[in-house]
Amino acid sequence: MNESHYISTTDVSKLLDVSVTTVKRWVDDGVLPAHKTVGGHRKILLADLLRLAQLGIVPSARIEDLAGRLTPAPATDPATLSAQYLRALCDGDATAAHTLLQGACHAGLPIEKIADEVVAPTMRALGHQWATGAIDVYQEHLGTSVCLTALKELKTRLAGKENDGPLAIGGCPEHDHYRIASLLAEMVLLDNGWRTRNFSGHTPLLSFARAIVDLKPRLLWLSMSYFQDVERFLAEYRELYRVAEENGVAVAVGGLALTDSIRARMPYTFYGDTLSHFAAFARSLHRPVRPPRRGRPPLRSEAG
Ligand code: B12
Questions:
Q1: Quick one: CA dihedral 3, 4, 5, 10, positive or negative?
Q2: Does pTM surpass 0.85?
Q3: Cβ(178) to ligand 1 under 6 A?
Q4: Which residue has its alpha carbon closest to ligand 1 atom 84?
Q5: Of 54, 124, 139, 217, which one has the greatest count of Cβ atoms within 10 A?
Q6: Cβ(294) to ligand 1 under 6 A?
Q7: Are residue 60 and residue 85 in the same domain, yes or no?
Q8: CB of residue 22 inside a 6 A radius of ligand 1
Q9: What percent of the chain has pLDDT over 70?
Q10: Is 168 in the pocket of ligand 1 (CB under 6 A)?
Q11: What mean pLDDT do residues 119-126 have?
């Protein structure tokens, strides 16, 4: 039996000493990745099960004896995780990407650290492979969409918490089709108890201004990875900032395209090179009642 072996929910229930219903619930809750056969049966990759058991996410009853004969436990150090994540993106393997991020989260890595030290370096490497011709555009796009899928799954777990904190709105300006950095900024806020509205990419700045008047947020985040027309951007941005200030809204900016020279011509409340900076700023505005999750306790089976 090797790690690429798929086993049934019944086999899993025997291995973990829990009921089949529990296993099915974990699959439906997205905790245990599974593949559905044409007949609708859930099949679980043994490697995924082993990974989750070694991370203490699922009970490990009789699974340990398998460990020695299968793959080593996934890394929790960002550099190795980033290398594993890049392989998953290049292979177009959404399940592996999803499990790596989940594992990193459960191992206690804060979202901002996953963003700055796992996802950003991975995407830089992917971009470099495209820029140097080592991969084709379709491979970069595949890797990007696998990354987005895995992040969105992770976000569902963060968004599940009934956050009662202040409201933050955000996204990227017009002609900027980047999604990953802004999604990660949103996830940092969710992890710190904020409520969020993410307008995603290519949103006109004057539309953000209208949203400020309509939604009365405490914070606006803007992630900027591409400018089509810097002068037009700056003119509209200054109008947006005037509306934000008038309504007592803090404006946080960052992103690949925000060079020192452009930034020097912009008013803002906060600028950060990384999402770790952003997380610290967000916590200075709102201290979450429940501290950000660090190393979530293992899941309880029906019995326990
Ligand atoms: C994915 C990607 C795309 C995708 C985006 C898809 C999507 N749905 O997201 C698409 C296909 C749209 C794309 C298009 C283009 N791309 Co592109 N792209 C990339 C790539 C590979 C990854 C970017 C990414 O998402 N990184 C992950 C995030 C998390 O990292 P990050 O952006 O660095 O964010 C960090 C910080 O900046 C900061 N941060 C970011 N936002 C914020 C916000 C706040 C508030 C704060 C505090 C901090 C902060 O924290 C983050 C985490 O550490 C980069 C390579 C790279 N070096 O990153 C090239 C790259 C940026 N692209 C590049 C280019 C040239 C383009 C195009 C112009 C190509 C073309 N000719 O069409 C177009 C422009 C499209 C447009 N109009 O938007 C070049 C830019 C070169 C340059 N110096 O300007 C790069 C560097 C590739 C390369 N190596 O040459 N791209």
A1: positive
A2: no
A3: yes
A4: 257
A5: 217
A6: no
A7: no
A8: no
A9: 85
A10: no
A11: 96
